[in-house]
Design brief:
Length: about 270
């Protein structure tokens, strides 16, 4: 089930006027990696399929980028580590970390009533810089992103990293993407931000669709046919369009079940 961690401030723009014509126009901003990015032709991320689930009062700006950790998405990161084992951040003349242009553009456009969805934790486990992010730094960066959104009157939403498809016989293996699933939930509690547990929702979906065992072997390949071959690209992580559509629907359903204000805009 989805988590309601940090429900404080979760209502956001309720649009409680009933018909969409009485609702304020809002933007859903998205930060993430390749499982979220628009992509094409494969992989296709769920962020590119999100707009179709809402009425015309919602604009979606998907700034997810393939291959990024939360820190390489946000900052200009160097290839060396500091004494704590975290990758060094490039800094300006005043000693402040320099940020990517995508974040600056997002902040300049973000307004009261908007939403910011954040999903990382797939590339962050890289042992090498620039992508490596430890769990503590991961949570702290989520907190920084969330506070910037709140400062502009927007509602942040944390999303745990989507599960890979990994089978143990006919059972979908759970617990992939740690320690970042737990770190996302803890960040939600720490910073008062609602959390959608996409990791659990996705494994539950894979199990319900009977994806395990994977036809033809233990991983998805270009020879994998049927529902699994249609859902995923030629690996255990990324989605083709049918998969991205289903994952986006999971996010939307969680928005509805957790009674976020954004739910009023769903079709």
């Amino acid at each position: 089930m989805t988590s309601s961690a940090g429900a404080s401030g979760a209502s956001g723009a309720s649009g409680s006027g009933g018909a969409s014509g009485t609702q304020p126009s809002i933007t859903v901003w998205i930060a993430g990696d390749s499982t979220v990015a628009n992509g094409g032709p494969c992989p296709i991320g769920w962020g590119g399929q999100f707009k179709a689930l809402f009425n015309g009062k919602v604009a979606v700006t998907n700034s997810a980028v393939g291959g990024r950790s939360v820190r390489t998405w946000l900052y200009n990161v160097q290839d060396t580590k500091d004494s704590a084992g975290e990758c060094n951040l490039a800094k300006d003349a005043q000693g402040n970390p320099t940020v990517q242009a995508r974040w600056t553009a997002m902040l300049n456009g973000m307004k009261s009533g908007d939403y910011l969805f954040i999903q990382f934790g797939i590339n962050d486990g890289d042992s090498a810089c620039p992508r490596h992010v430890g769990a503590t730094a991961f949570k702290g960066t989520y907190g920084l992103l969330a506070q910037a959104a709140k400062d502009r009157g927007a509602q942040p939403v944390f999303v745990t990293p989507v599960s890979q498809i990994l089978c143990s016989g006919s059972t979908v293996s759970k617990g992939t993407r740690e320690p970042y699933v737990t770190a996302t939930k803890e960040a939600g509690t720490q910073y008062g931000v609602p959390v959608i547990d996409l990791n659990l929702l996705s494994t539950t979906l894979y199990q319900s669709l009977g994806f395990c065992p994977i036809p033809g072997g233990g991983d998805v390949s270009d020879t994998t046919t049927g529902a699994v071959g249609a859902f995923f690209c030629d690996d255990h992580t990324h989605f083709d369009t049918p998969g991205a559509v289903r994952i986006a629907a999971l996010i939307a359903q969680a928005v509805r079940e957790q009674k976020l204000g954004l739910a009023a805009y769903l079709n």
